Structures are given as C-alpha cells and as structure tokens.
Amino acid sequence: MHGWLILDKPEGITSTKAGSIIKRIFGQKKIGHAGTLDPFATGILPLGLGEATKTIPFLMNRTKTYDFVLSFGSQTTTDDTEGEIITTSLHRPSTDDIQNALKKFTGLIQQIPSAYSAIKIKGKPAYARARSGESVDMPSRQVHIYNLSLNNYDGEMASFTVTCGTGTYVRSLGRDLALHLGSAGHLTMLRRTRVGNFSTDDAISLEKIQKIGNTPLTCFLLPIGSVLDDIPAVSVSIQKANKIRHGQAVEVCESDCLSTSTWCDEILVALGHVKDNMFYPDRVFNI
Questions:
Q1: Residues 253, 218 within the same domain
Q2: How far is the C-alpha of 286 from the C-alpha of 247, rounded, in Å?
Q3: Contact at 8 Å (CB) between 169 and 177?
Q4: What is the predicted pLDDT for the residue at 122?
Q5: Strand pairing of 204-205 and 3-9?
Q6: Do 151 and 159 meet the contact criterion of CB atoms below 8 Å apart?
Q7: Residues 69 and 122 occupy one common structural domain
Q8: Do 152 and 119 belong together in one domain?
Q9: Residue among 222, 224, 220 nearest 269 (CA)
Q10: Which residues pair with 143 in a beta bridge?
Q11: Residue 235: which residues within 8 A CB-CB, separation 6 or more?
C-alpha cells in the first residue's frame, strides 16, 4: 500500500511506536513519519506508507500548528508535566502582559530546545543523555514563529495557538514566554492540529484503526501526491514514463526547475529536476 495515513497520535507513546503499531496491524513493510511528536504530545502525525516515504522530505519543511496550555508557577526539567520541578514563582502575569509579550515571540526568534528533546548530541539523543544524568549543553537555534495567539487565560493557565516553522520546540516556547513575563511555567497540554495541508479533519485515531478489523487501510489513505502540490507537475506518455523508470532523461515542455514531478495517467512516475527542457529523474516510484 502506498499513500499517506494521517494519524491522530494519542498521548503516552512515541511517534516511532505509533508507526510500528500501524506497520504491524496492516503488515506494512515500509513506513515513515514526518515531524516527530514526543509521548507527551498528541495530534497530527503524518505517516508515509510504501512509496510515499520517498516524499517525506517535501512535508518536513511545511509549517505546523499547535494548541498548547501553559501553566504558570513552576518550571520543570522537561518543560512539561513529565519532568521534575526545578523553579517556582509566585508571580502571575496579567492578560495584557501576555498579549504584549507575544510580539517578542513572533517572527524569527532564537530558542534553546529542551535537554529532553530528540536532538542528537554527538550521535546520541539529548533526552537519552539527560535521563542518564549527563549535563547536556543544548545549542541555540533560530526558528520562525508565524503566528502566536492567546486563546484563554484564567490567571493560572493560558491556552495558545501557534503556527511555526520546522525545528520549533513548543515546550521551549512556553518556558521562555513564562520566563520573559517574570514567572516560571511548563506545558500541561500540547496538541498538533496541522502539518502543511494535513489537519485534524484528515486524521484517524489509533483507537479507531485498532477497531476496524478487516477494513482495508486503503480506505484511510491519502494519495502520495498530497504533499507535492507546491511543485510543478508534468504529464508524460507511457513510453516516456518507462524510460524515466529506467533512470533515463526525457524531453518535456517545462522550464528549468529544481523540483518537478512527472505523472502518467494520474500515476506518479518520478521526482526530479528539469534543465534545458529535459527531465532528469532523481527518485523513481514503483507503483
């Protein structure tokens, strides 16, 4: 089976574990996920099945949207409810304080990811080093926050929605926002609601999948091309498609382009690039 399964990941399992469950249930040999969610987080986890794994890079750099709840008063080692409290504060910001602070956390910002993130430090995940007692020095990174809005605040907990670029750690965003407001804070909820064009409307829960029994997984799959809508598409004949599948370049009526997809009778043939009206395949699909 080839296509995208948009899983609504439950809390308590890793993205890898979620993919393994799908793999086992449907006897799928090849599966990969785009955009890791740690066990604490829930929501959209796009799973590429079969030949769709070859298009994962086209989804990795898309914007993502999250809902999260920030609890003021204490900071934890993991910046969420799973860690130990390391700092407390009696200060609670006002609604106006929060609204004014959001401007400083929008656009290109610097952030230091949590030591309990999956970022690899000298080949080993940071969280593995942190949990073994190592002192982890996390490098700062630049991330893009496209929009950050306050949804509700009761004086103790504030709910937000953020749309951000790749590499953003929302737990770190919440931690830094609380510190900037003169308080301390950690996330009590984190849910991803969108990855690129995929949203919760496209998603299916793991619980439902486990209950469907003999229902074919193809009923829930989205086409491979769902993640290729922002690159040029070229239609080719059967003869040219066969040449492309054998790694040969073919003539096309298309301008020079670094990323192009070729199709034959609505079937994805290859991804590649065009130069001097010749399409050169970089990745061929066996569908």
A1: no
A2: 12
A3: no
A4: 77
A5: parallel
A6: yes
A7: yes
A8: yes
A9: 224
A10: 109
A11: 262, 263, 264
Radius of gyration of the chain (CA): 22
| Domain carrying residue 37 | 3-62+197-225
* Separation of CA 56 from chain center: 10
Residues belonging to the active site: 38
Tokens of 266: 């609505």
Total of domains in the chain: 3
- The length of the chain is 287
Residue-level pLDDT at 213: 61
pLDDT of residue 233: 94
Looking up residue 85, the CATH number of its domain turns out to be 3.30.2350.10
Cβ neighbours of residue 228 closer than 8 Å, sequence gap 6 or more: 55, 58, 261, 268, 271
Q: Which residues of the chain have pLDDT under 50?
A: none
Residue whose pair of structure tokens reads 């986890």 in the numeric block: 45
Q: What is the pLDDT of residue 254?
A: 86
Separation between Cα atoms, residue 5 and residue 153, nearest integer Å = 35
In sign, the C-alpha dihedral spanning 123, 126, 131, 137 is: positive
